[in-house]
Amino acid sequence: MIKTYILAAACCLPVCLMAQKGYTISGKISGLKEPAKVYLATVQSGAFKDTDSADIKDGVFQLNGSLSEPTQAILRVKRLNTPGERYNPDQLGLFIENAPITVTATDSIKNATVKGSVAEKENRELEALTRPLTNSIIRLNNEFAKKPKEDEGRKKASDSVTYLVAKIKDTRLKFVESHLNSFMGLYNYHYYILDSKFDPAVVEPIFHKFSAQLKSSELGKRTAEKIEIGKRRQAGVKVTDFTQNDLNDKPFKLSSLRGKYVLVDFWASWCVPCRAENPNVVKAYQELKGKNFEIVGVSLDQGKAAWEGAVQKDGLPWIHVSDLNGWQNKVALMYGINSVPQNLLINPEGMIIAKNLRGEALTDKLKELVK
User: Fold this and answer.
1) Structural domain contains residue 197
2) Is 22 helix (H, G, I), strand (E, B) or coil?
3) How far apart are CA 254 and CA 85, in angstroms?
4) What is the CA radius of gyration of the chain?
5) For a disulfide at 122, which of 43, 184, 186, 302, Cβ 3.0-4.6 Å?
6) Mean of the per-residue pLDDT values of the chain
7) pLDDT band per the 50, 70, 90 thresholds, residue 147
8) How far apart are CA 186 and CA 214, in angstroms?
9) Are 116 and 101 in contact (CB under 8 A)?
10) Shared-domain flag, residues 247 and 365
């Protein structure tokens, strides 16, 4: 949380962390003469929700409020005399914080210039570095997506996309390491460096380099919790036990398989990469099922019919569990699973010994580990 400090302490803090009473967003769209209204949406519980609105008179508007920390926002202009705008909304994404912020445009708010928000300024600086790389990925995907997998050009494009994705992550990492006293540094660390498959042993030391004020902020506390949850799926730690209902609505407990090698496979019927990976998992199961080995599929489905149908269609003859809460599946939340497919390999003593074993080499990798 952004706190108020005595003057002596405040002088030592970066501008983005100094206490402000609240924010004021002063907007001017000089070319807008018709009646209109502006809506402010901010992120709440993972989704954008309208939190404020104001009439636009002669192209001018003002919004006021207070935040506990900088946040993502959307400003949306609705022209009252223009029907069908919801299909092509005039809106601007930005970061706002407790500061005087000005938004200036000549015709459309999507082309506005934003001043006064340090978080927005730093975000745009980072976007200027990553946008060319992202555009290259989009271009390659559009050019080669419909080509057959055997096409040589598609293979090279795939390698290029892999390189560009790694380049974007490296660019973000360098930004984080050079902004350890900045909210946007911590924001990018939380959402991009702590990605769906981060290794706590590798990235946790970076977190401890952030300023004490950032680490004690609301985002800092969520980040520390995210790291601790990530440790639950780290190789070398004891697996956290869980109980969840199987396809027959009977409770299954992971520890009931103690003494066996267990592959805990997170997937869903709607997940295309998961379904594409299933033949590899089936092959591994068929070769190892009589060798003290079992698989537990944890589904992130919301409907039992789709879940059960996928199990039958793909021929998945192992244990399946789910609470049918989608991404809010309690086991997935417990392990910090926010992308699928993912898996954990547990040894007979209940220790995680590998994770995210994939592809045609899955069986060979399991044969090496399951002894």
Assistant:
1) yes
2) coil
3) 52
4) 25
5) 184
6) 90
7) confident
8) 7
9) yes
10) yes
> C-alpha angle 261/265/267, rounded to 5°?
170
In the numeric block, which tokens belong to residue 8?
Answer: 């002596």
Half-sphere exposure of 261 (CA within 13 A, CB side): 19
Specify the pTM: 0.81
The SS3 call for residue 61 is: strand
Looking up residue 47, the CATH number of its domain turns out to be 2.60.40.10
Q: CATH no. for residue 342?
A: 3.40.30.10
pLDDT digits 0-9 by tens, 242-251: 999 999 999 9
Q: Which residue has the higher pLDDT, 80 or 255?
A: 255
Please give the pLDDT value at position 366.
84
Single-letter amino acid, residue 219: L
Whether residue 129 has pLDDT greater than 60:
yes
Domain boundary among 59, 83, 116: 116
DSSP state of 67: -
The whole-angstrom separation of Cα 326 and Cα 302 is 5
Dump pLDDT digits (tens) for 312-341: 999 999 999 999 999 999 999 999 998 999
Answer for the pair 65, 51: CB distance below 8 angstroms, yes or no: yes
Measured at the CA of 369, the angle between CA 368 and CA 371, to 5 degrees, comes to: 90
Which tokens sit at 171? 């660019």
Tokens of 151: 């096409």
CB 258 within 8 A of CB 289: no
Same domain assignment for residues 223 and 250:
no
